[in-house]
Structure to design on (201 residues):
């Protein structure tokens, strides 16, 4: 049986990555093989592209194209083979991040991203997307204490407001796929919410 693709999304500072170990544990306790991965990255080439994407200034469309180049490699060499052998793939970010950051944040046209999505993914879409949502002030104050902020983490509150709005818009357009998580609660409460969602999957 084909596996499922579960993606985690949210602004920088939304706290999504904290929940990865417990999600893996939950799925493995059900006897599933889990492949935990991330974007940009997830392959040796993708990790090299990630270095560039997180550190180098570039034109917004160059950024979009490199995100999709990394994604093509990721799908071809990691995601598709895993799904085909029945594993569940947990990806820390996927294409919704491109809609949020490159379209919402940088103003790249959605038509261009739709065309790239079609080319790179064909019919592949996440089976479920957990969107960790926090108010922009919370995200910005968490990022202010980050030791070595990357190119995206150094962005303004105005940029993050666009990211958050774009994510919420994506969620409202794809209600069957998205699970919205209020990440501005005590960690135990968020954990309980995540557990409930994952068990239901
Ligand atoms: P991370 O901090 O969650 O690992 O993600 C790395 C950064 O890359 C994050 O700031 C969001 C950004 N990003 C995009 O701008 N577009 C994309 O398509 C992806 C996957 C990530």
């Amino acid at each position: 049986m084909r596996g499922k693709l579960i993606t985690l999304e949210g602004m920088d500072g939304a706290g999504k990555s904290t929940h990865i170990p417990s999600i893996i544990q939950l799925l493995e306790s059900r006897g599933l093989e889990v492949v935990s991965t991330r974007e940009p990255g997830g392959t040796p080439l993708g990790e090299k592209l990630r270095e560039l994407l997180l550190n180098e200034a570039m034109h917004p469309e160059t950024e979009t194209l490199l995100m999709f180049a990394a994604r093509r490699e990721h799908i071809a060499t990691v995601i598709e083979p895993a799904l085909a052998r029945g594993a569940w793939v947990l990806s820390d970010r996927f294409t919704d991040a491109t809609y949020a950051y490159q379209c919402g944040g940088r103003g790249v046209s959605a038509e261009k991203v739709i065309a790239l999505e079609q080319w790179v993914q064909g019919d592949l879409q996440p089976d479920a997307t957990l969107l960790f949502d926090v108010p922009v002030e919370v995200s910005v104050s968490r990022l202010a204490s980050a030791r070595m902020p990357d190119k995206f983490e150094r962005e303004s509150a105005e940029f993050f407001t666009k990211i958050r709005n774009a994510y919420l818009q994506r969620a409202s357009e794809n209600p069957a796929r998205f699970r919205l998580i209020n990440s501005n609660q005590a960690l135990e409460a968020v954990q309980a919410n995540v557990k409930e969602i994952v068990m239901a999957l």
Summary: The pocket of thymidine-5'-phosphate is lined by residues 12, 38-40, 67, 92-93, 97-98, 101-102, 152 (CB under 6 Å). The mean pLDDT is 97.
